[in-house]
């Protein structure tokens, strides 16, 4: 296991990026979170075998230690990190004195509590940026005290007693110079160099520093003498035929030369000459890169370009690219000689070259149409693209066991870079083969001859060790009836409904499936219970089955006889584990003839016994999700009945055909951003052995492969032949396996263009194909620096490619509907996650859905879901701490599950459901079951169990402990009976039928959604946990048009209303103009007796929908004959009404205020939502019989330009007239501040205007009375203060306590006596009632200062809000990211936010035009660590604690910008950015 690696994330062979808040360490695959809360390797099979004697481990390789032994080794309770840098002795000492460490504990709590440096300064761990320990070594001293003469300075860090990993950064404090996030495995053995790391600083960019877990020197040769020619790294990049770029510059007149060596092994001699190579070219003087060159390699835009002489031919260049290449530049070094004299010495620097871009330039166009891999024609042809190979042979294998039967030389095409050979069908067909490639490998600095399988393999031997010649058109590779078999059609992507299935999970535990087919492709061809269930879902409206990766994976051993599964005997397990003493069942306490399943069934689920036994078989069984690609174009052999040869091809086709015949289409999960292995050592590494360094994203200075995906080495899909590979691969699956759609794993690591091109190529062979992607913005790696536009969510909007919608997912997983959280993102998701859809928030503001993160341009781009294979199942999410009330009944828990699942099904867009979720499927709280085996991943299609509580899960996170899980398992209300599972299944099927039964749930354009979908639950009267959505199909004019008639999409209904009541009580929302609705006929006959009681009743011109607790009810307005009246999306004030005057600024203009007649900021009306504008103005007193005059108008006196002949008094309301030439007149007896309120909700040409005194309680003192202060006292200590604009407030200290009671009242308990029966939730408005007998109830869980704020702008219906003042008083918070010079790392006065009162924190920054990313966080990225979606200037954007998403911000004009963090509602903290210029 590599000892030093980039900071990595939890969970391992899994796909996807975890967007959830996590307080505990994240673990690098294969580490998992252990019981003691640290990362570790609990499973012996993960441990690499010991190296042969005389060698040591370096990553995956065993190497001969031909380097000097370091003077300082790590003691048993410490770690040692060396840091070295090129330069003279004095330059090195100066650099060492500047470096310090940042230490933290994210990957495994490996460090001790504190560390002392060489200056005897002590630092607590985690350290506080930018402070940290300096080096422990000294400039002078004995060996082990001084800087190591070979390896430089070193840090010494104490380690903890049980930790497994520690995080570190080497940096120069108070600068931007730092390495990447690094970590060190705390190996507690006595192995050579355990707990040690070596860092060679790259002075051009410390993030490109070399890092190793074995000793490394600055240059290729370890010497104490400063070499005349220093050769190191792979820093130069050959980017076009005649241009090389390098991050080194050399003075005019100094040579820069390019050397080559066919044999490899170039080095330097003492005189500084290159030995073992020949001069290929003397390069031109360094120059700046052109704009075109910078666009090609944006991450290298600051490099220096060196040009080859034009007379060097392309053929010569292509020949040189097959050799070892070394670029050498000369420079003058001013030094002091042994006599103390200052002399000038010419020295040299050399480095090797990275070649991907020149290979693309020379070969990609010509190779674009090449059919790589195996093709059949007059013979059998094998082709492989290997332009840097010196030679390629085809090795043919036959027999049993396989042996080499022929070696055929392959021919190189210098035009395409392709090697090929053709043989007869008789000599090659059905035989196995490998390529033998001879090429130079820059990391090994040597020419190697390696055997490798075909990257384009279509069939394989067992475990993928050999490729096989197979013609996919041969009849015996196809099941009977394959050609021309029926494939169901889907008229539009919005009509899709997707079911995510794992092939093994589908049948491995099912007794009704033939034993030999369990867990296999062929299980789908039988009439088993799982198949019957799948057919029933298809009959109800399911359209697609999404299979987790079915291409050849590297992890599962396909030779079934070597596996240990649930039905294997304990004897078999104990024979195969590497350490029997570590497995409790191997101690003789369990009979050898017991099966693993029998032993697991005997365990108490309240113990870790099941966890431990599953850990023992985890890497011996046949289970894995499959996100570990080995061969992308061949089916996984573990799912076939015979992994040797083309049986896998025929049986995967049989599965796809069976699924088609059920009426379902097939989606394939594809994983192109990474493989499991790279390099030359791993048996399952393919690409790197064919074209070294081309197919992977490598460090620009070291050429070490990146692991940004945290699931394996990152492929460089931005390189053109890797992009071609992706398109070729998906086209093959569509063409030869009739795959109907593709889900792209971690597409954010790929260019958008690669997905779009692959989409177009696939549509050429299957016009009905559909692509969707896991398009999270990558957190790690440098893909964002290299790719102009990545395939992330926002970028894919408008392409028609779907993306997983985490905006709806997160609040659904967090049970926001149940526990009263913000659900605006759920509403946006119900409306297709369209960025331009209008939503009314709880504050009453009308916002674009983009403000809450929506980004789609077409509903087909929204993949709406609650959960998928990674992370917990819905049932397990429901049982995380605080998700649902602990005393909730099992019946209501079942209802909550069904309600939550109903939301993606009834949303606009594409619903996506994990297999078994409709059966209340549980993984017993496992958050990452990729390697948890068949026990924890079981799906029971008999509906007898949901797999809840079958043992403590293999890993835990987010602070969840074993004790918590034991408690929730012990709660009898958490374990469903078969009747609950049956009901959940039936209700899910009903929702499928309802959604598929009307095209109104599958609107196909953004325009249709915006016109037809409305919400009738928004605004200040919003009820937490209640959503009321309508879909209009009635007569009318399409929104945004003047005369386009609304089409009649569903001849059966004129409108649909969906009421989602996630509260604990029956709700009866009133919807204006709703008439003629009845409960959907499917729900009238529902398996759920409760929903049958839902009803509709007319109430005057409106309608009341009554829906029981924890219920989603669907109501329809039946169409009788021709299209009739529906229900407008904007029928109620709770709807998403448009801003009356759009973006036009509206002003109160006249001598009514100091602003006068000019349109200035001080007299601009502010839009408050609901069609209401207001402004507070300082109005002078009017003279007797001489009223003040004014108008309401925009800057150019156009629309609006509102006037009236009326003479107003303070408190009056009048109607204004658009275009009036009359000034409005008002008598103001007393100068003061007055509120002007313009109500344009009903009309923009005849709005009303009210002028009022905002101090509504000016004639009476109002007090906070109750147990929060005193019921009886009415003094200044509890008196509300008018702060302006009818807002009255008081702040008081409160201790922790339940059931505080209070009212807002005058001294006489009569003039003002405001109360409410609604419990107060911190940060949320509560409507008050004058004369109420109800006290307001308040619970305080954290002691602090609390602000009570009464908004009496509507004096007949005032509201109160209570929130904690200065939420982060104990923790300074900072704007961290690219928005300021402090960057991501520093937390200082440059980016510190200041508390401004009233729950608001602010910071003003001067910013240039550009795109920015930031978060709001405390110094150690703990709590707070607030992230979210992009924000729009002037609009609040919600942020989430622990979010992995950076907040995006686009600035078009340079200037000063104020950032305001609003913490008044702790459950809905927002950030707003305003331009101040």
What is the secondary structure topology, with strand pairs?
Layout: E1 4-6, E2 32-33, E3 39-40, E4 56-58, E5 61-63, E6 78-84, H1 89-98, E7 100-104, E8 114-116, E9 122-124, E10 153-158, E11 165-171, E12 182-185, E13 196-200, E14 210-212, E15 229-231, E16 236-240, E17 243-246, E18 256-261, E19 267-268, E20 274-275, E21 278-282, E22 287-288, H2 291-296, E23 304-307, H3 314-320, E24 324-336, E25 342-354, H4 356-367, E26 373-376, E27 380-385, E28 391-398, E29 403-409, E30 411-413, E31 418-423, H5 425-428, E32 432-441, E33 446-452, E34 467-468, E35 498-501, H6 503-507, H7 529-540, E36 544-547, E37 551-553, H8 570-576, H9 596-602, H10 609-617, E38 629-635, H11 647-661, E39 665-670, H12 687-690, H13 720-736, E40 741-744, H14 752-765, E41 770-773, H15 783-786, H16 793-796, E42 802-804, H17 806-813, H18 816-819, H19 824-830, E43 838-840, E44 846-848, E45 862-865, H20 874-877, H21 890-905, E46 910-914, H22 933-936, H23 962-970, H24 978-996, H25 1006-1012, E47 1013-1015, E48 1026-1032, E49 1053-1061, E50 1070-1071, E51 1077-1079, H26 1081-1084, E52 1095-1099, E53 1102-1106, E54 1111-1118, ...
Parallel strand pairs: 6-13, 15-25, 16-25, 35-36, 35-46, 36-39, 39-40, 40-41, 41-42, 42-45, 45-46, 60-63
Antiparallel strand pairs: 1-12, 2-3, 4-5, 6-10, 7-11, 8-9, 11-12, 13-14, 16-17, 17-23, 18-21, 18-24, 19-20, 22-23, 24-25, 26-27, 27-31, 28-29, 28-32, 30-31, 32-33, 32-34, 37-38, 43-44, 47-48, 48-49, 49-54, 50-53, 51-54, 52-53, 55-58, 56-57, 57-64, 58-59, 58-63, 59-62, 61-65, 64-65, 66-69, 67-68, ...
Domain Glycosyl hydrolase family 13 catalytic: 598-943
Keywords: Glycosidase, Hydrolase
Pfam families: CBM_48, Pullul_strch_C, Pullulanase_N2
């Amino acid at each position: 296991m590599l000892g030093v690696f980039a900071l990595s994330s939890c969970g391992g062979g899994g796909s996807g990026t975890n967007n959830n808040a996590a307080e505990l360490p994240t673990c690098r695959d294969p580490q998992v979170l252990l019981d003691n809360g640290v990362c570790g390797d609990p499973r012996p099979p993960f441990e690499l075998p010991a190296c042969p004697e005389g060698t040591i481990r370096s990553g995956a390789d065993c190497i001969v230690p031909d380097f000097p032994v370091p003077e300082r080794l790590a003691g048993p309770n410490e770690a040692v990190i060396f840091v070295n840098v090129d330069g003279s002795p004095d330059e090195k000492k100066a650099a060492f004195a500047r470096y310090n460490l940042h230490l933290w504990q994210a990957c495994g709590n490996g460090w001790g509590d504190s560390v002392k440096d060489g200056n005897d300064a002590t630092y607590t761990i985690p350290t506080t940026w930018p402070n940290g320990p300096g080096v422990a070594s000294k400039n002078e001293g004995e060996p082990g005290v001084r800087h190591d003469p070979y390896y430089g300075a070193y840090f010494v860090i104490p380690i903890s007693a049980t930790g497994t990993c520690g995080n570190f950064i080497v940096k120069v404090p108070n600068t931007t110079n730092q390495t990447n996030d690094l970590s060190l495995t705390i190996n507690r053995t006595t192995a050579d160099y355990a707990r040690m790391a070596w860092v060679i600083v790259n002075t051009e960019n410390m993030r490109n520093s070399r890092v190793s877990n074995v000793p490394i020197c600055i240059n290729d040769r370890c010497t104490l003498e400063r070499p005349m020619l220093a050769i190191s790294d792979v820093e130069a990049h050959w980017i076009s035929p005649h241009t090389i770029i390098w991050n080194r510059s050399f003075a005019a007149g100094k040579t820069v030369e390019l050397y080559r060596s066919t044999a490899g092994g170039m080095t330097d001699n003492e005189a500084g000459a290159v030995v073992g190579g020949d001069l290929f070219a003397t390069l031109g003087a360094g120059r700046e890169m052109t704009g075109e060159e910078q666009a090609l390699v944006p991450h290298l835009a600051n490099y220096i370009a060196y040009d080859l002489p034009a007379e060097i031919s392309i053929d010569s260049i292509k020949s040189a690219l097959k050799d070892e290449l070394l670029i050498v530049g000369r420079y003058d070094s001013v030094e002091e000689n042994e006599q103390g004299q200052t002399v000038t010495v010419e020295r040299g620097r050399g480095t090797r070259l990275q070649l991907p871009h020149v290979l693309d330039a020379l070969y990609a166009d010509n190779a674009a149409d090449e059919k790589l891999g195996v093709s059949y024609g007059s013979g059998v042809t094998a082709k492989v693209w290997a332009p840097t190979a010196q030679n390629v042979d085809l090795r043919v294998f036959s027999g049993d066991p396989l042996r080499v039967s022929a070696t055929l030389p392959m021919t190189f095409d210098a035009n395409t870079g392709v090697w090929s050979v053709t043989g007869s069908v008789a000599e090659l067909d059905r035989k196995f083969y490998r390529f033998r490639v001879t090429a130079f490998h820059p990391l090994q600095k040597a020419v190697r001859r390696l055997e490798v399988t075909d990257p384009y393999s279509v069939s394989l031997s067992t475990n993928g060790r050999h490729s096989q010649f197979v013609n996919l058109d041969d009849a015996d590779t196809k099941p009977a009836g394959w050609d021309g078999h029926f494939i169901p059609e889907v008229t539009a992507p919005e009509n899709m409904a997707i079911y995510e299935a794992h092939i093994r999970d589908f049948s491995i535990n099912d007794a009704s499936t033939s034993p030999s087919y369990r867990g296999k492709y062929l299980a789908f061809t039988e009439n088993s219970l799982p198949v019957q269930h799948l057919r029933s879902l298809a009959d109800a409206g399911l359209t697609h089955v999404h299979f987790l990766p079915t291409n050849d994976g590297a992890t599962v051993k396909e030779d079934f006889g070597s596996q240990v599964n649930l039905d294997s005997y304990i004897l078999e397990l104990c024979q195969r584990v590497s350490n029997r003493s570590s497995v409790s069942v191997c101690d003789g306490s369990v009979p050898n003839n017991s099966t693993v399943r029998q032993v697991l069934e005997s365990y108490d689920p309240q113990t870790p016994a099941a966890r431990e036994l599953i850990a023992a078989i985890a890497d011996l069984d046949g289970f894995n999700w499959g996100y570990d690609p080995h061969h992308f174009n061949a089916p996984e052999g573990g799912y076939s009945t015979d992994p040797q040869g083309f049986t896998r091809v025929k049986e995967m086709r049989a599965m796809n055909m069976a699924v088609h015949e059920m009426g379902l289409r097939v989606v394939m999960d594809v994983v192109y951003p990474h493989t499991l292995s790279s390099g030359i050592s791993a048996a399952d590494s393919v690409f790197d052995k064919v074209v070294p360094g081309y197919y992977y994203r490598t460090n620009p200075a070291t050429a070490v492969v990146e692991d940004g995906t945290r699931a394996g080495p990152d492929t460089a899909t931005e390189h053109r032949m890797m992009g071609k590979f992706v398109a070729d691969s998906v086209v093959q699956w569509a063409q030869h396996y009739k795959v109907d759609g593709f889900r792209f794993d971690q597409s954010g690591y790929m260019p958008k263009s690669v997905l779009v091109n692959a989409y177009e190529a696939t549509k050429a062979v299957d016009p009905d194909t559909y692509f969707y992607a896991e398009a999270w913005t990558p957190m790690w790696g440098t893909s964002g620096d290299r790719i102009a536009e990545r395939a992330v969510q926002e970028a894919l909007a408008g392409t028609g490619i779907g993306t997983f919608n985490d905006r709806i997912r997160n609040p659904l997983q967090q049970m926001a509907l149940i526990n009263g959280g913000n659900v605006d993102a759920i509403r946006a998701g119900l409306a297709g996650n369209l960025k331009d859809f209008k939503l009314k928030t709880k504050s009453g503001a009308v916002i674009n859905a983009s403000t809450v993160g929506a980004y789609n341009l077409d509903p087909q781009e929204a993949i709406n879901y609650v959960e998928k294979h990674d992370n917990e199942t819905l049932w397990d999410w429901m049982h995380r701490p605080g998700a649902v009330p602990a005393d909730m009944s099992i019946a209501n828990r079942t209802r909550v599950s069904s309600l939550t699942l109903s939301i993606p099904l009834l949303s606009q867009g594409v619903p996506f459901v994990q297999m078994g979720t409709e059966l209340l499927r549980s993984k017993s709280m496992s958050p990452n079951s990729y390697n948890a085996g068949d026990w924890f991943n079981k799906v029971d299609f008999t509906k007898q169990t949901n797999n809840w509580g079958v043992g403590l899960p293999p890993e835990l996170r987010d602070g969840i402990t074993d004790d918590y899980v034991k408690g929730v398992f012990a709660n009898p209300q958490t374990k469903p009976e078969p009747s609950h599972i049956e009901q959940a299944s039936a209700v899910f099927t009903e929702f499928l039928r309802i959604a598929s039964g009307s095209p109104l749930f599958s609107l196909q354009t953004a325009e249709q959604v915006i016109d037809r979908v409305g919400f009738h639950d928004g605004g200040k009267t919003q009820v937490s946990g209640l959503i009321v959505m309508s879909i209009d199909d009635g007569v009318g004019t399409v929104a945004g048009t003047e005369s386009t008639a609304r089409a009649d999409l569903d001849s059966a209904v004129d409108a649909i209303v969906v009421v989602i009541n996630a509260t604990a009580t029956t709700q009866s929302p009133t919807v204006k103009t709703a008439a003629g609705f009845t409960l959907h006929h499917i729900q009238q006959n529902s398996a759920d007796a409760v929903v049958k009681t839902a009803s509709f009743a007319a109430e005057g011109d409106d309608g009341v929908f009554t829906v029981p607790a924890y219920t989603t009810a669907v109501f329809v307005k039946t169409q009788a004959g021709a299209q009739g009246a529906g229900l407008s999306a904007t029928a109620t004030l709770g709807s998403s009404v448009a801003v009356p005057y759009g973006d036009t600024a509206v002003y109160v203009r006249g001598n009514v205020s100091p602003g006068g007649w000019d349109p200035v900021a001080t007299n601009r009306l502010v839009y408050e939502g609901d069609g209401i504008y207001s402004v507070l103005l300082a109005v002078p007193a009017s003279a007797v019989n001489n009223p003040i005059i004014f108008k309401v108008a925009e800057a150019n006196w156009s629309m609006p330009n509102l006037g009236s002949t009326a003479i107003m008094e303070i408190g009056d309301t009048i109607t204004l007239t658009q275009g009036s030439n009359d000034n409005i007149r008002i008598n103001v007896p007393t100068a003061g501040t007055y509120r002007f309120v313009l109500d344009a909700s009903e009309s923009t040409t005849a709005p009303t205007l009210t002028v009022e005194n905002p101090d509504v309680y000016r004639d009476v003192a109002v007090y906070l009375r109750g147990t929060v202060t005193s019921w009886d006292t009415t003094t200044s200590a509890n008196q509300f203060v008018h702060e302006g604009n009818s807002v009255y407030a008081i702040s008081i200290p409160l201790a922790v306590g339940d059931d505080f009671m209070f009212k807002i009242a005058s001294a006489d308990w009569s003039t003002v006596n405001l109360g409410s029966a609604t419990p107060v939730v911190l940060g949320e408005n509560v409507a008050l009632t004058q004369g109420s007998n109800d006290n307001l109830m308040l619970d305080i869980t954290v002691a602090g200062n609390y602000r009570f704020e009464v908004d009496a702008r509507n004096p007949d219906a005032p509201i109160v809000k209570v929130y904690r003042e200065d939420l982060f008083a104990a923790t300074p918070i900072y704007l961290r990211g690219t928005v300021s010079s402090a960057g991501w790392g520093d937390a200082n006065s440059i980016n510190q936010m200041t508390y401004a009162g009233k729950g608001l924190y602010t910071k003003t920054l001067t910013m240039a035009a550009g795109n920015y990313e930031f978060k709001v966080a405390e110094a150690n990225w703990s709590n707070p660590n607030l992230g979210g979606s992009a924000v729009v200037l002037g609009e609040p954007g919600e942020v989430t604690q622990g979010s992995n998403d950076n907040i995006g911000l686009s600035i078009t004009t340079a200037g000063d910008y104020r950032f305001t963090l609003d913490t008044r509602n702790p459950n809905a903290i927002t950030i707003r950015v305003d331009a101040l210029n």
